Prior knowledge:
- Helix 1 packs antiparallel against helix 4.
- The protein is globular.
- The strands form two sheets. Strands 1, 2, 4, 5, 7, 12, 13, 14 and 16 form a nine-stranded antiparallel sheet that branches. A seven-stranded antiparallel sheet has the order 3-6-15-8-9-10-11, with no helix packed on it.
- Helices cover about 20% and strands about 35% of the residues.
- With about 280 residues, the chain is an alpha+beta fold.
- The protein folds into two domains: about 50 residues; about 220 residues, Jelly Rolls (Sandwich).
Amino acid sequence: MRNLLVLSVAALLALGTVANAGVLAFDPFATGGSDYTVGAINGQNPTTTGFTGAWTSNTGAAAVLAGTLTDSRLPLPGSGGSMDAGGSAITHRAFSTTYGTDGTTLWASYLMAAPSYAASTWRGVAFGNGPGTGNTEYVLDIAWDGHGTGGMTANQVILFNRPAWTGTGTSYTPTADATNLMLMKFAFGADDDDSVTLWINPADVSSEAALGAGWTLSGHDFAFNRLWTEDSAAGTGTTIDEFRLGNTLGDVVIPEPSTLFLLATGVLGLAFVAWRRRRK
């Protein structure tokens, strides 16, 4: 019986490995030890899945915080910590590879909490393609926009292609200082026929169909090699946490219950067979 218990524990650990096999990039902004140090993020270079090189920021306002953001729709989080995008800060870190191969699909999720709305502000996350020289590299912004850019309503989250200066509003007005789950799907088509769909705080993340309607921006080249954060409002900070990039929806949020059940049943079944063989 003891051997079966050991095998079952090993099987469940293997299940966790299988369930996260498609995670391409993950940064929980964990602090302590060899992880992040609380304070300015500029120059920090901890080992995190799917990233390379140090964070670069134009100001010391962008910082690692001791507190963390949480959401029950995400897989088990890292060991605390989060990122303050900083006031008037533009900050970035490179992925280990460039994403955007034609015919592929990616999913991403992260948590965001922003302070009270102020006019003429731009807060959020961007994906860029370039050496990290500035926001002209952005291929996609997901921002709480106070400008009403491109004719869109101010104080709503928007999807925005910076080089083409075109975007779409989400009609979603964030609640100040509340934690928002930002979930998106990238579909990379031929040439510049890429699309990205954004869901904000979807109630059911068990499958793509359960997500319901999202907001889609298409007709652009969304290939990217760098993650950016930006907060154009001096003296305020937008908190970002639990960034995940993966091949499937289940890589970046809690997988479907049916998927977990099938994986668990199969792995535990193999453990039981191994135990029976050891007894013979």
